[in-house]
Amino acid sequence: MKSHAPPLLIVDDEPQIRRAVGRALASITDTTLEAATGAEAIDLAAAVAPALVVLDLGLPDMDGVEVCRRIRAWSDVPVLVLTARHQEESTVEALDAGADDYVTKPFRPPELLARARALLRRTRQGNPAASAVVTAGALTIDVGARTVTRNGTAVHLTPTEWELLVVLATHAGRVFTHQHLFATVWKGREFGDAQAHLRVHLAHLRRKLEEDPVRPRHLVTELGVGYRFVP
Fold first, then answer.
1. Are the beta carbons of 120 and 52 closer than 8 angstroms?
2. How far is CA 231 from the centre of its chain?
3. Side by side, which strands form the sheet with 139-142?
4. What gap in Å lies between CA 93 and CA 87, rounded to an integer?
């Protein structure tokens, strides 16, 4: 359903891509604004306070990562990155710079729409408070009580597993890079390979929480990038 929320800002140097993104998102907005350069995107984001920024990384005047970093310095607007598959390193940089999610080019309109809806929904709901109860299928995560149940049965988690789960579950849908998640949970207490540390702890979490740890529904891997929690 459309609303009278602020407009969406589409940033891409190719007019046909901007039009395609606008068509894909037409069902969730009355107004879309377009920018072909990073400088124009930053100016528009400051002037109109959009509800969502869809940001291409390959802009002619500056890297999209830098655009994201500059917007994030003064705004918490959700940023959905558009990226080519071979730009995996840039995608990770953008997520570390504050982007919320990404879609690869060539994109599928239904996927782009679903990701945009999820970001807008999370923005409307706000970040769950410390006392939030998060439900996902058979899981109930009571943040305030520090408890997790699966099908009504209590699940014991180690302190690190709990911290990982809370960060992911209270930001459902958001992609966390390996480095960002490692820094958020370990807070400098550990050194070494972030991916290796996370792989071990996520494997333990999946065995405890997922019906099928080999094909997880909630603790999902974004290959080469990081993890997201899917409710």
1. yes
2. 13
3. 133-136, 139-142, 147-150, 153-154
4. 10
Measured in residues, the chain has a length of 231
Q: What does the alpha-carbon distance between residue 216 and residue 206 come to, in Å, rounded to a whole number?
A: 7
Which 3 state secondary structure label does DSSP give 104?
strand
Give the separation between CA 136 and CA 205, rounded to whole angstroms. 14
Q: Render pLDDT for 115-152 as a digit per residue (tens, 0 to 9).
A: 999 888 877 665 555 458 888 899 999 988 889 999 99
Question: DSSP label at 58?
Answer: B
Helix, strand, coil percent values for the chain (each to nearest 5): 40, 20, 35
Q: Judge contact between 163 and 189, C-beta under 8 A.
A: no
Distinct helix (H) and strand (E) counts, the chain = 8, 12
Residue type, 198: L
For the segment 170-216, what is each residue's pLDDT rounded down to a tens digit? 888 888 998 888 888 887 666 667 788 889 999 999 999 999 999 99
In angstroms, how far is CA 171 from the centroid of its own chain? 8
Cα–Cα distance, 188 to 10 (Å, whole number): 36
Alpha carbons 208 and 156: distance in angstroms, whole number: 8
Cα–Cα dist 48/35, whole Å: 13
Q: How would you classify the pairing of strands 176-177 and 219-222?
A: unpaired
Angle, helix 64-72 to helix 38-48, in steps of 10 degrees: 20
